[in-house]
TrEMBL record:
<dbReference type="InterPro" id="IPR029058">
    <property type="entry name" value="AB_hydrolase_fold"/>
</dbReference>
<dbReference type="Pfam" id="PF00975">
    <property type="entry name" value="Thioesterase"/>
</dbReference>
<feature type="domain" description="Thioesterase">
    <location>
        <begin position="59"/>
        <end position="151"/>
    </location>
</feature>
<dbReference type="GO" id="GO:0016297">
    <property type="term" value="F:fatty acyl-[ACP] hydrolase activity"/>
</dbReference>
<dbReference type="InterPro" id="IPR001031">
    <property type="entry name" value="Thioesterase"/>
</dbReference>
<protein>
    <recommendedName>
        <fullName>oleoyl-[acyl-carrier-protein] hydrolase</fullName>
        <ecNumber>3.1.2.14</ecNumber>
    </recommendedName>
</protein>
Length: 226
């Protein structure tokens, strides 16, 4: 999926999406996995599915990527025995890895037992969180296995090599352009393309993107975090 996304980034940079500049299409979600706007207001850690006393302690704990929504793993938890996924709190206070870990660690500890080994799975950004959680658990006498999915820089480096692009400027511009394509009408996106690629600094690009989202995204500003 990430390979496909980066390929699209490269195509958009090359101007291959000009025929979609009529503004007829509007994408009303920031990410495909962002679920409903209401989900973003959850201020505490959410466990999917919720465990009861009958099912016993969890054996597998899954950590999602940067979108933070546990529902991405919902189908997986149904086929795995005693598996749960965690949804990161979105209260505006957990803005760093250390703060997210601090909010999740006690929840994970309550889900597990020292009587049997755990399996913790981290995907993408979730690998950072999962690794820190495992470190805390091991210091308290828990034992288990950490599985990391797409959490190493090697994958990104390989993609960059395949794209024949080593420029940090290209990566920044393409990333912002791709993100904007997910949350504003494509017609507006085409209008902003030239300005985005003219920006000289990361701050300029981010500020331009924020203003564009504020004007065009069909979501509330507090949901967008702007």
């Amino acid at each position: 999926l990430r390979s496909v996304m980066l390929k699209e980034m490269h195509e958009k940079k090359s101007g291959l999406c000009q025929n979609s500049a009529n503004g007829d299409l509007e994408i009303e979600m920031i990410f495909k996995l962002s679920e409903e706007e209401l989900d973003s207001k959850i201020s505490s850690v959410r466990v999917v599915p919720e465990l009861d006393k009958i099912s016993g302690p969890a054996k597998i704990v899954l950590f999602p990527g940067i979108e933070g929504f546990a529902t991405v793993f919902e189908n997986l938890t149904k086929v795995l025995g005693r598996a749960v996924a965690l949804q990161y709190p979105a209260d505006g206070r957990t803005t760093t890895v250390s703060k997210i870990v601090k909010s999740l660690a006690p929840v994970v500890e309550k889900l597990l037992t020292k009587d049997e080994p755990f399996t913790i799975v981290g995907y993408s950004f979730g690998v950072l969180i999962a690794a820190e959680i495992v470190n805390i658990l091991e210091s308290k006498g828990y034992a288990g296995t950490l599985i990391c999915i797409d959490g190493a820089p090697l994958f990104s480096k390989t993609i960059m090599k395949n794209l024949n692009e080593e420029s940090e400027l290209f990566v920044q511009n393409s990333l912002i352009y791709q993100l904007l394509s997910c949350c504003i009408p494509l017609g507006e996106l085409a209008k902003n393309k030239v300005d985005i690629f003219k920006c000289q600094t990361w701050e300029e690009r981010v500020n331009l993107a924020i203003e564009s989202v504020k004007k065009n995204a069909p979501l509330k500003a507090d949901y967008l975090g702007l």
